[in-house]
Every structure is written in structure tokens, then in C-alpha cells.
TrEMBL record:
Residues 1-29 are annotated as: Disordered. Belongs to the FlgM family. The keyword Transcription regulation applies. Keywords: Bacterial flagellum biogenesis, Cell projection, Cilium, Flagellum, Repressor, Transcription, Transcription regulation. It comes from the Bacteria. The gene is flgM. This is Negative regulator of flagellin synthesis. Responsible for the coupling of flagellin expression to flagellar assembly by preventing expression of the flagellin genes when a component of the middle class of proteins is defective. It negatively regulates flagellar genes by inhibiting the activity of FliA by directly binding to FliA.
Length: 102
């Protein structure tokens, strides 16, 4: 599905803060556009609020555990790092099983 964007609508939307008002579209098929007021409020559902909180926590969590990486590097360099083959095999089998379910 494609639609035409009229330049007058784009100009209105880029020149000042705007919001689309609820209601039926006019004869041209476009919804009315009006200015945002301080009375406009967005309320998230419980799930939306939980998702928002999870996103915030994820953004604040470092991607890499630097201490763990350093400890593993030192163990490898010292020749003391040991791989638990059974644990690796179990995790690989579980991953394979999960991939087969999707």
C-alpha cells in the first residue's frame, strides 16, 4: 500500500510541534493535525511500563563483564583455564533443541 504525502502537511508538521487529533479523517482522507498542548498525556499500560523499565535497565547494564573477561584471559595465559566439556555439550544440545522448537 502506498500513499501520497502532501507538501502542505509535511510543512505543517516540520514547522511546529504537532500531533494527530483523534477522529475521522476529512474529505481528503487525511486526519486533522493540531498543536500539542500541555494537557496531552500518554499513559502506559502495566506491560508497557514494565517494558519501559526493562529497556532502561538494559541500557544501563554494561555489554561486557570486564572483570570476568580479565579473569578468563589471565587463566588462559597461565594455562589454568579448564573447559567443562559436559557443560558445553549440554548447553549446545539445549540451544539446538530450542532452535528446533521455533
Amino acid at each position: 500500500m502506498t500513499g501520497k504525502i502532501e507538501s502542505s502537511v509535511v510543512a505543517q508538521m516540520t514547522n511546529s510541534p504537532q500531533s494527530v487529533q483523534a477522529g475521522k479523517a476529512g474529505a481528503s482522507g487525511h486526519a486533522r493535525v493540531g498543536a500539542v498542548s500541555e494537557a496531552d498525556v500518554v499513559t502506559l499500560s502495566g506491560q508497557g511500563a514494565n517494558l519501559n523499565e526493562l529497556v532502561n535497565v538494559a541500557q544501563q547494564t554494561p555489554d561486557i563483564d570486564v572483570k570476568k573477561v580479565t579473569a578468563i584471559r589471565e587463566a588462559i595465559a597461565a594455562g589454568t583455564y579448564q573447559v567443562n566439556a559436559e557443560s558445553v555439550a549440554t548447553k549446545m544440545a539445549h540451544m539446538e533443541w530450542q532452535m528446533g522448537r521455533s
